[in-house]
Design goal:
The complex is a heterodimer of chains A (272) and B (299).
Chain A: H1 2-13, E1 32-40, E2 46-55, E3 60-64, H2 71-78, E4 86-91, E5 94-95, H3 104-108, E6 111-115, H4 126-136, H5 141-154, H6 170-182, E7 188-192, H7 200-215, E8 219-223, H8 227-233, E9 236-241, E10 244-249, H9 260-268
Parallel strand pairs in A: 3-8, 3-9, 6-7, 7-8
Antiparallel strand pairs in A: 1-2, 1-4, 4-5, 9-10
Helix pairs in contact in A: 4-5, 4-6, 5-6, 6-7
Chain B: H1 2-16, H2 18-54, E1 58-62, H3 68-81, E2 85-91, H4 93-103, H5 105-111, E3 120-125, H6 131-138, E4 154-158, H7 161-203, H8 205-213, H9 218-258, H10 260-263, H11 270-296
The chains are: A alpha/beta (272), B alpha+beta (299).
Amino acid sequence: MAATERHVRRRRTRPEAAPAPAPRSPVPGAVIEFQNVSKIYPSGDTGLQDVSFAIQPGEFVFLVGQSGSGKSTTMRLLIKETEATTGTIRVAGRELSDISRRRVPYYRRNIGVVFQDYKLLPNRTVYENVAYALQVTGGSRREIREKVPDILRLTGLSLKLHNVPEQLSGGEQQRVSVARAFVNHPPLLLADEPTGNLDPETSIGIMQLLYRINKTGTTVVVATHDVEMVNKMRRRVIELAHGRVVRDERAGAYAARESTREFALRMREDRP
Amino acid sequence: MKLGFFLREALRALKRNAVPSFAAMATVLVTVMLLGVFIPVVQATTGAANEVRGRVIADVFLKNDATKADIERVRKLLDNDTPHVASIEYVSKDQAYAEERKKHKAAYEALGTANPLPPTFRVTPDKPDNITKVRDSLTPIGPSGQRTVIDSAIDEVSNREEDTNKILSVTRVVKLTTALLAALLVIASVLLIANTIRLSLYARRREVEVMKLVGATDWFIRWPFVIEGVLVGTLGGLLAVLLLAVLKIAVVDPLAAQFALIAAPDTMNFPLLIGVLLAAAVGVSAAGSGISLRRFLRV
């Protein structure tokens, strides 16, 4: 796996790869740290309520919970698309509220993002889609020629270089999206329901890819509904419910153990 | 590399957004063409008006029995003691008679040898607008409300007030209407360009979203749209200039060669006009893009 090794090397030579611990951070060295974070939307809906957790560099974390439990809010807060109402969020020791609006694009270059709906540009080829991320961040032609084929090899898309997204299967499209997110070798990769639209077999392929990326030292946070996957991978699980952290387990399962009897009781409850 | 990227993005957007782009281009074309016609027309009318206004003079009629000494005294008065006087010209009784006789032969033949015309000083003011000041200083309004003369030899001072006022108001109206029309057209062009860019933004909102996600700076996202707008405007401007050039060569130049009238007033030369029009087209389209980006692209 030569491509992977090259990525490992590149990750290690990145100057900002090792996050400097912030002076006031109670969890030293954490990549992501939420401290009593609440998010209340202008409509009055609660996104998050008093959420605190910390993620160390190199971790692979599942963020699970029902729809509306605050997973997407967490993701949006992390890419600074919205601001927390109260509490502090630190990424690589840096408080997000300290980043000025003008600096947000530079901050985002350190984070790769993968979405359920891929967010690929429909009238560009696979190669152009991936190269786009580099062009936007001011990558040189040489850099593009060097990095893009490399990352496409890593994601197994070498043969689909000149196809446009609609000629690809869902799994392949998601691979392109992962390739685009990782072509800059960001120290942090966020994935919001990356397997939400995919069948189980294809999902495994995507997870494998994320796992491999994680092995290069990149911290990976995956928000998901994929019970099967979470249970099989046995990674750290943070469960959210109604905007609160209800569980944070190392090597956890999607849901806390529930016997058939308990489940039956739940089914008979009045409230749907 | 960067500029090339922006240009390619802008052209890609233009191709996909062809119909609204064409509409915006057509408006810019019409605006620039009208501007291109109006600028010389306005210049020509102001030029002509100024020429007429340059001929504005005050006639200082002396009494019929003014002696040589009286005439010399009034000349000195006009030369030294009256403000806003540019030049004076003395027309004696005989000269006036000769001039008028030439113009109205029949009338003077009926008159016989009698000469009813008084000796006159024609006073040219330094600026046409100052003509009333000259008149007021020569014939101040007395305490009774009647005009009095400051020298007993002066009979009356006439400033041809009506002519002057007419010329002044006509030029003002021409200037105002053309300015208003031009302003309206410019506003229409700006709004149409703004609309084109808005449509382009809407068509590419996905792209903008992706750009934001991968960390493109605000201006990196904006430049292709600005370039798109400016390209549309410049294209419209260029076409308009081309049409104007054809018009000038095919219609105005032959006419001007036959009638001195068209070419007479000094208007700005054609290359300068082209420059001004293209600058206007680019300015208008940049403004239009700016409006849309400000309102619809929250980055």
